[in-house]
Amino acid sequence: FRTPKNIDKLCYNLAKKYGWTPVFMHLRPWMLQPQIRKKIKIILDAGPLEFLGLIKRANLVITDSFHATAFSVIFQRPFYVVLDNKSKRESRNSRINTLLNILNIPKYILYPNQAYNENTLDLPDINYKHIMSYLTTKREESISFLKNALSERGV
């Protein structure tokens, strides 16, 4: 996750405001602002279990990752997604936008070129009851489709 400086600062200041320990999973910690880098926990390489555990236990997830977004939803964690306008990331942005629009939660997007302040940015208030109900219905439809398709082929 290569965050713009304003997003790094926002993450740090939100954690400080709420009394959380800021944890950055960052492949390039030297890109973080030096004054922030000294005051946070940096994880350079998380395996699958650690990655999932970090999301599951997070008070707030701020990410540019589709998978971190999806697992934030699965674990019902509040989150913001940072979308980059760079063309090489169009595919990733498209998947994230599609997911957020299907779940009817497109307002939890941050853009690097906008100014954010921990005093004016509210913590996400996501209606996970509605989302989980929707996902349960879609999961059941998918399982039913697969069972029917397999039984038609004698599997």
Describe this structure in words.
With 155 residues, this protein is mainly α. It has helices at 5-18, 34-37, 48-57, 66-74, 90-102, 128-152, and strands spanning 23-25, 41-43, 61-63, 79-82, 109-110. The strands form two sheets. The protein has a three-stranded parallel sheet, with helices on one face. The protein has a two-stranded parallel ribbon with strand order 1-2. The protein contains six helices and five strands; from the N terminus they run αβαβαβαβαβα. Helix 4 (66-74) links the parallel strand 3 (61-63) and strand 4 (79-82).
Q: What's the rounded overall pLDDT mean? A: 84
Distance between the termini: 42 Å
**Element order, helices and strands?**
HEHEHEHEHEH
- The helix content, as a percent range, equals 40-55%
Largest sheet: 3 strands, parallel
Low-confidence stretches: none
Total helical elements? 6
Principal-axis shape: elongated
Q: What is the percentage of strand-forming residues?
A: 5-15%
Structural class: mainly alpha
Arrangement of strands in the largest sheet:
3-4-5
Gyration radius from CA atoms, angstroms: 18 Å
Strand tally is 5
* Assembly state: single chain
